[in-house]
Structures are given as structure tokens and as C-alpha cells.
Amino acid sequence: MKPVNNETIVRQLNWRYATKKFDASRKIQTPDWKTLEQSLVLSPSSGGLQPWKFFVVTDPEVRAKLRGAAYNQSQVTDASHLVVFAARVGFAAADVQRHIDRTADVRGVTLESLEAYKNMMLGVVSRPAAQVDAWAARQAYIALGTFLNTAAMLGIDACPMEGFDPAQFNEILGLDKKGYTAVVIATSGYRAEDDGYAKLAKVRYSSEDVITNVA
Amino acid sequence: MKPVNNETIVRQLNWRYATKKFDASRKIQTPDWKTLEQSLVLSPSSGGLQPWKFFVVTDPEVRAKLRGAAYNQSQVTDASHLVVFAARVGFAAADVQRHIDRTADVRGVTLESLEAYKNMMLGVVSRPAAQVDAWAARQAYIALGTFLNTAAMLGIDACPMEGFDPAQFNEILGLDKKGYTAVVIATSGYRAEDDGYAKLAKVRYSSEDVITNVA
Hints:
The structure is a homodimer.
Chain A: H1 6-15, H2 30-41, E1 52-57, H3 60-68, H4 75-78, E2 81-88, H5 93-107, H6 115-125, H7 129-154, E3 157-161, H8 166-173, H9 175-178, E4 180-189, H10 207-210, E5 211-214
Antiparallel strand pairs in A: 1-2, 2-4, 3-4
Helix pairs in contact in A: 2-7, 5-6
């Protein structure tokens, strides 16, 4: 008894595409958006450390400003929802402690019992700052993958986007003051009927080209 | 008519966890593995450029060597499958051209018609080498997210792992000679009945803590 059958998964992974034109009149309904939110909250991350925040922008004025900082791409204003994936800058021992405190709280265990785990996690922050920031940014991309896949399983469109100016996004959303930086964004909603990109064949290398079996 | 209902998605995202102990006797069956392979092949990436290869290691001797380069973690030998996510090193104009050629082939269009798209993609490779490599590594994390989620939807366990020595992995698998580098790995299979980690409550920050609505 599989939770989701193989055919459904492969069909939806083929169905999804980076939506270029959204139907601005269609909004994601609340129960579906709650599921997409949960996919962000529940996303895996290294050591479970969740070095991220997600900014969900629905304010039209802010969206218009962000569009100006994203090569004027229409998805930024026309999609139902816009998620800015922000990674922690300078993730440090205090962030590890915050996670340890949360773990003790959720699991009802003592801080002492988490000491070995904590010391292992502190290894992450003992690396040079640039490496730690790169690590945090990578984690945000796991959340992006989780979000895009969840949308596909729900039959909701999405478009991941790297074409934007992080510095301007940080400024507009006040992210730097909070200790975060925008690393990637995703717009989500429903494709416009006349988005020609929806009809194009998906371009992927063959399995043989990207998968090497060491057997 | 949703492809997958909300409850199933949220339940499976809660069901999954970073499996610490696999049942070494249980193997992922071929139809399920094919679906997991497809999740790698079909994973989104920036511009669809797929700057990656996936090395699926089932050879027990190679797995034993890799375990030695991964802090002796048991998942590396005991899981049904091991995937090494490798990012392209020095992704360059020739890689863009390869993708353009593939696009022309799959869509049956002329190379000339793809000229504007190609020039946009060449923007990716015009950045400093370290930035391009960091970009490629991030894409591999989208594929990781896609893989982990697909496994969860199928009710198959997995464990993403950053705790390994990339240089040794590259050496053992001959990745550097191929122009790739190991960035993250995932083991997949079925949890051992006595993996105590399966029973622990999942630790996540609250929605309010990680999601900020700009509305």
C-alpha cells in the first residue's frame, strides 16, 4: 500500500514546468497554501538546523517593487504567491543553541542529554564564515525542491527563479537587518491558458547521461 | 481533482526522517527505484541546465570504501541504494551548448531559434569560477530535495548526508577525472525496526517562526 503511486508521481513531475505566465485572477486556496507552507516548515535540512526563513509576499505594492528588482519578470506580480527563500547569514553557536532548546522542548528531554548532538552540530559553525553561509544557502535549495515538488503533487504551478537582485530584495524586505539574505525565490499559482511554455516538450538529458550505476 | 491530496502529502512529510539505521535485508524494488531515478532526471534546475550527475552505488566493495570516507556511518553500506549527487566543476560555455543541442533535438527546433535563450544561459557561466561552482552545487540540492520528497511520497526511507569527505569520494568514484565533484549524498531503503530515531518527535520551528507573511 503505497501512499502515492508511481504513475502519479512521474506524471506530475512531467506535468510541472517553470511557469512563465500565471493567470493573475486565480489564487491558491487556503487549504492548499497551508500544505505548501507545511512543505517549507517540514523540509529536511542538515542536522535539522533549519538555517532559513521564508518570506511570503502577497502585498501588491511590495510585489511591484520586487518585480523591479527581478528583471521585471511578470511572475513576481502575477502569481498567486511569492516565496523568498532566505538563508541565515553568519549562522553561529547561538543558532545551534536555539535548535537544541527547541529539541529539548519538543521532545521533552533535558539539555544535558543533547550535549553530544550539540557538539556535533557546533562543528558546522566552526568552519570559515564563507563556508557556513554557502552551507546555509544550500539548505534553502532543499526547501525549494520540497516546495516545488509539493506544488507539483497538488497540481499547482510554480516557477523557481534565480534572476533577481538579492541586495535589492534584502533591502525591500529588510532581510539584512534580520540576519538573513535572499538566495532564491519561487512564484506559485496557476498557469495562464496562453503560456506557450506549458506546451513545450520537457528537456532533460537521458537517464543514461545523468545516472551512472556503480554496480 | 487533485493528483495527491493534502493529507497524504503532510502525513508523508511528517513520516519521513533522516534514517539512521536501515534494514540491510530490504531492497528497493525495481519499479520504485525507476521512479526515484526519474525524480533525479526530472528535477528542476536553473535554466534547465542540469549541471549534475548522479552516481548510484550498489557495489558492496565500493560502498565499504565510501563508508570509510563517511565517518563509518552504517547507512552507507546498509541502505538499499546510495546516491552521490555530483555537481559539474567549471560549468562553461560548452555545457550550455550541450544543453542547447539537446533542446533543439528534443523539441525539433533549429539552433538559430534558441540563440536568445543560449545567450541568456551564457550569463550563468560568465561569472567568476567560484560563483559558478557554488551555483552548480546549489542545483544539486534541488535534486536532493526532489529525491527525498519522492521517496517520502512512495513510503520509502532515506537519509541525506553531508558528513563525508568529498575529496575521498571523488577519488574512489573517479569523479574529478570526469569534471564533477560530490556535494551531498543520500542513502535510501527501509528503516530497521529498531531504529530508535524513527520514534522521536520531529523537531521543527513553528510556522510563525520560519514563515513571515508580507501581506
